[in-house]
Amino acid sequence: MIPTPAFVVDEPLLALFAERFESALERHWPNSILSYSFKTNALPWLISYLRERGFWAEVVSDHEYELALALGYPAERIVYNGPVKGRERLRAALAAGSIVNLDAKREVEWAAELGRELPDAQLAVGLRVNWDLEARVPGESTTGAAGSRFGFNVDNGELDEAIARLRAGGVRLAGLHMHRNSRSQAVDVYRASATLAAELIAERGLELDWVDIGGGFFGSVDGRPTFDDYVGAILECLAGAVDPARTRLIVEPGGSLTAVPIEFHASVVDVKWVGDSRFVVTDTSRTDLDPLFRRSRPFAVDLTTTSTATVPSQIVSGFTCMEDDRLLTLEGAPGLRVGDRLVFRNVGAYTMSYQSTFIELPPAVYVRDATGAYTQVRERASVADYLRGNTWLPARILAR
Ligand SMILES: Cc1ncc(COP(=O)(O)O)c(C=O)c1O
């Protein structure tokens, strides 16, 4: 048994999810780019594993871009998105042949400036489109009335202004980036974004190298929609506007790929009664499992205990000093004892990348293979790592 606390990557399950994405694209849109959204979980082992499978990197900061290079992604297999690109990194990425989707007005200026400097380079960029999801699919927006802040708005002319500024610098608009998060992750959201992309292409006479539909997909072992459902619908909506053999579809899955195959293994460190409440204190915390303390739906947990007597109610808690660091309430379960184990399932998305130094340093990570054998791919960060300033990337990480 591995020591706790630790994240565990279930490699066969990760491979299953990766294979589903690969085969859906192969079936519907072979001329596509399957890129992995680094921000979701930037564990070096995971990033290297996906590179070896042929995934591209989808990055949203200079730091993520440099991480991709450091872990062996060639520049021409990096999709560079997000509003916080630095000028020098943006210029280098364009010169090196990365796919770049601009998201800030200063980036448009920088690209146009480079276009003027290098008229023979035939620079080409994509633009993130800011569009009204709520108007097209009511009830799906996660942003409230103020709308999304990403990209260039279609309705107020800012998208057309960005296109004109690029043209003035000799830079071709080669792609549209349509990513939106949604409430239900329904296929209709992707129908809406693909339909809007098709309208923009037709109305503006665009000749695109790529349509980047983004991430935000649902991912589960046997639920719907499947990735096949999504890509089939996207193709239907775009087939009349682009030639799929010429224009590449880009997808950027994050959580839908990494959430389910990653578990957290924890142990009970103390059990105490306070009045009628039974508290079970563990060696994990919301800082590991729900770093934004936002989760309201219950965790999926497997218990391993030697106890047979059930107790009506137990509050399973984290180790931190915050009173609201409570993980779940078990009703009618065996009374947990010190040393009993809990495995929290489906916790791979937006957990490790928000890892905390609050009270404890980030935990170890193991990979479990098809035989059930465990390999450690990251040690728990140490005080020496912390003092070296390597808190976010412990030096002894074992990249593949
Ligand atoms: C531009 C972009 N691409 C991809 C993703 C990944 O989304 P998800 O983790 O929902 O798949 C995000 C997440 O917000 C994003 O902003």
TrEMBL record:
Keywords: Pyridoxal phosphate. It holds the Pfam family Orn_Arg_deC_N. Gene3D superfamilies: Alanine racemase, Lyase, Ornithine Decarboxylase, Chain A, domain 1. InterPro entries: Ala_racemase/Decarboxylase_C (IPR009006), De-COase2_N (IPR022644), Orn/DAP/Arg_de-COase (IPR000183), PLP-binding_barrel (IPR029066). Its cofactor is pyridoxal 5'-phosphate. Residues 26-259 form the Orn/DAP/Arg decarboxylase 2 N-terminal domain. SUPFAM superfamilies: Alanine racemase C-terminal domain-like, PLP-binding barrel. This is Orn/DAP/Arg decarboxylase 2 N-terminal domain-containing protein.
